[in-house]
Each structure stands twice: as C-alpha cells, then as structure tokens.
Amino acid sequence: MRTERNLTRLDRVFARLDREPERPAHIDVPRMSRHRVVLFSATLAFYGAIVWAVVITSWLVRLDWQVMFFRPYQQWSEIHAFVDYYVVLGQRGPTAVMIAAWLGWRSWRQHTLRPLLALCVSLLLLNVTVGAAKIGMGRLGPHYATTIGANEMWLGGDIFPSGHTANAVVTWGILAYLASTPRARRWLSALSAVTSLGVGLSTVYLGTHWLSDVLLGWAAGLLILLALPWFEPLIARAETAVFDLRDRWRARGTVPAPVPATVPAPAPVLLKPRAAAQDEAAVRTSRTPAYLAPGPHTARSERTPVTPVGSRRPPHTDRGSRGTTSAARPLTGG
Fold first, then answer.
1. End-to-end alpha-carbon separation of the chain, Å?
2. Residues contacting residue 118 through CB under 8 Å, at least 6 positions apart
3. How far is CA 111 from CA 14, 17, 114, 171, 296, in A?
4. Of 37-46, 133-142, 237-246, 264-273, where does mean pLDDT reach its minimum?
5. Residue 165: which residues within 8 A CB-CB, separation 6 or more?
C-alpha cells in the first residue's frame, strides 16, 4: 500500500519558492486614513516636545547627564561585546543592503518595483529630515560634552536625533509597511519597534548618544513611516516610468526580421498551338533521310554476298555436298 509523505513546514516553504513568479492580483497599499493622520500628528507633537525640552535645558537634559555619569558600559561590562555587534542593526550601510536584497527578491517575484521604490523613498526622506535636524541643532555627544548640565546645542555636533535609532525604525519598519497580510504587519511592526528601541539603548549603553537623542530618533523614523502613504502616487508614477523606459529599450534592441531578396521572374515560355506542333512533326518525317555512306543506294538483292573464305564446318570424307545425290550410298530395302 502506497502512502504519501507528510510535508513539513520547510517543504511547504520550498514549494512556495519553486512557483513561477507572479504579480499579485491585489496589492494592499496603505492609505492615509484618519487613524494614521492622528498617529502622525501625535508623533509630530512628541518630536516637537523633545526638541523643546532639550532647548530649554529641562529635566530631560538633567536625565541625560545622570545616565552618562552612570556609565552603563562599566556597570554591565559583560554584555559589551554583544552590544557592539547588536548596534550594527542600526547602521545604514549593512541594514540597507540586507533589506534591499530581500525587497529586490520580492520585486522580482511579484513583477513590481514598489517594494524597492518605497525603500528608496524612505531612505531619501531619512537622509533629508534627520540629516537637516542633526546639522541644524548641532548638539555634541556625551564623549565631547564641555559643560556639565548644559544641553550642548549649536556647537557643531551631529548626534541629535540619533541616526542609528531612526535608521533602525525605517529600515526594519519598511518590512511591516510592505507586509501583504494584516497579521504579518502586526508582528513585523512589533519586531521593528523592539529592534529599533534596542539599537537606541545600545548607543546609550556605549555612551555615543544621550537618552533624548534616542527618543527623538525613534520619533523621527516613525514620522517617515507614517508619511509614506502620501508618497504612494509618486511611487506608482515612478514605477510606470521605469517600465515604459524598459519597454522602449527592449524595442530599440530588437533586430528586425531580414527582408527576403527578390528573385527575378523566369522568362515566359511560349506555348505553341497543338495543330502547329503536329504540322511541324509531319514536315520533319517527310524529309529525305540522310546517309553517312556516300554513293548511290542499292537494293539488298543487288548487293554482292560476302562469304568467308573457307568453310566453317569440319571436313567429312563420307558427306557430299548439299544438293547432289550420293552415288556411293547403297539402297537398302525394308
């Protein structure tokens, strides 16, 4: 009796990977709903509150200095090696390469450029907004602080907000933004939030950022993810333009089929009528035959017979010549 082997989860995953690439019938594109607008407004207000609290040197700045004097990297030195590796999850180069590879594979499978274009737009917004805030506020980090208790603003620094934290929110949160099912979106949102917050706390542990830098970086990255639906029409137009350009290049690169050379038409054959052909054959047969031998023609009976010299028969002594009666043969009676 033949039994079928039960497929494991890994077998089912490989079975899905072996399918032909196909464009999904319906792509769930997030819209700027009322809930998202409220969340965006609340995050923007939180962003402004953090900046204001640091500018006026409030209790948040005092908390920054207390954490810096606590020196977490000395209090928990046993996890220092792990934190050095974990903080790489917030570096722009390695994370962008990993996420771009995954989204590029998804783009190929689904025959759409939206995942890659959404990543490009989010990273562009990240560089513009966070970079402008860093340069504009110019805050110095804990290792370069000059005055105890000061906010260290406008001194030529570039650590406020935290770029590691904002980059972790955007690069890992874009996976949740592009998720195809609501359940996957919830799980990936929670995972990206924990990962980005862990990256921010890792920078505080290492002493490269103030605690307020991490809070502002987390808010800056979340603002970019919440604002992405406003850029979806631009992403769609860019995708259409790229596909049109690809089609034009393909049409330009195709070689036209060779045109067959014209063969000259054969000369027309003149067909003679059947009566004329018969008359020509009769004239041909009525002509006097030509002979190769010269001289007058003689009949066969007038020709001189040519006989070979001598007889071709062996000589017999007892046989006479034909036409004569043998006298020596005796006559016998019966």
1. 110
2. 103, 174, 177, 178, 228, 235
3. 20, 15, 9, 22, 102
4. 264-273
5. 90, 196, 197, 199, 200, 203, 209, 213, 214, 217, 218, 221
* pTM of this structure: 0.68
Which residues, other chains included, contact 4 with Cβ-Cβ below 8 Å and sequence gap of 6+?
Answer: none
In whole angstroms, give the CA distance from residue 220 to residue 277: 105
The total of other beta-carbon atoms located within 10 Å of residue 107's CB is 19
CA distance 6 to 138: 61
**Which range in 155-164, 245-254, 276-285 is most confidently predicted, on average pLDDT?**
155-164
**Rounded alpha-carbon distances, angstroms, from residue 167 to 132, 199, 218:** 15, 10, 9
273: preceding bond cis by omega (within 30 degrees): no
How far CA 5 is from CA of 19, 69, 93, 112, 233, in Å, comes to 20, 62, 44, 36, 48
Question: What is the Cα–Cα distance from 127 to 83, expressed in whole angstroms?
Answer: 25
The pair of three-digit structure tokens given for residue 191, joined into one six-digit string: 């995972």
| Whole-number Cα distances in Å, 318 to 228, 310, 313, 325 | 141, 19, 14, 13
